[in-house]
Amino acid sequence: MSTEVIRLAVIIGSVREGRFGPTVTEWFVSEAEPREDITVDVIDLADVPLSLAGPVREPSAEMAEALDRVSPRIDRADAFVVVTPEYNHSFPAALKNAIDWHLTQWRAKPVGFVSYGGFSGGLRAIEQLRLVFGELHAVTVRDCVSFHGGAAAFDDNGRPNDVAGSDAAAKTLLDQLAWWALALKEARTKRPYAS
Ligand SMILES: Cc1cc2nc3c(=O)[nH]c(=O)nc-3n(C[C@H](O)[C@H](O)[C@H](O)COP(=O)(O)O)c2cc1C
């Protein structure tokens, strides 16, 4: 039996200069890409500056161009992993802005989280994001990957210090996401989601 492949969009939630997000993302993608049941599309929000004044019914030409680059990819995805730091016990404003610009694309799809930060490892950002994605009819998966201490949890090669623990956490998250992604994709195909 052939493996059904799900399309996973990995979203880099921090956009500031000198951010650590890409390092965490690169590691996570290196865990996901070898799997036969997943293809990965990395969406870097730093590449799609969306106006904080949006969303609007008629976006400017600049916003329309930015949306053209990102919205179809969110729409196409069967599942999401949001890579988020913790800012003031929550998630970055740029991440919330990108979520707010998209109303329907998350519906009846699973969302998983990879977080990093100081003492709490970004867990407070994750718990708040669960509320946001619930409002958007998405399903957040229980298990997550969380790095306490942020950059200090990684070595100079951008690999987690705790290789075994991190790999196991990534596998659990990806297994859960793949299950939900397939289950919800089959359900959406059979019956349009009643939102
Ligand atoms: C504006 C701001 C607020 C932060 N607030 C928290 C916080 O409340 N809790 C925490 O554990 N870390 C906090 N941090 C530390 C970040 O989570 C940590 O530096 C992380 O690596 C930032 O991600 P980035 O480099 O990808 O932007 C904060 C960092 C910034 C820039």
Q: DSSP strand (E) fraction?
A: 15-25%
Name the bound molecules. flavin mononucleotide
Helix/strand/pairing category: alpha/beta
Helix fraction, binned, reads 25-40%
Global Rg: 16 Å
Provide the low-confidence segments as ranges. none
Largest sheet: 6 strands, parallel
Amino- and carboxy-terminal Cα gap: 33 Å
Number of strands: 6
> Whole-number average pLDDT?
96
DSSP summary: helix tally: 5
Overall shape: it is globular
Order of helices and strands: EHEHEHEHEEH
Features of the shown structure:
alpha/beta, binds flavin mononucleotide, 18% strand, 5 helices, 195 residues, 39% helix, six-stranded parallel β-sheet
Present the secondary structure layout:
Blueprint lengths: L5 E7 L8 H12 L5 E7 L16 H16 L2 E7 L7 H8 L9 E8 L5 H13 L3 E2 L4 E4 L14 H28 L5
Parallel strand pairs: 1-2, 1-3, 3-4, 4-5, 4-6
The site of flavin mononucleotide has 17 residues, from β4.
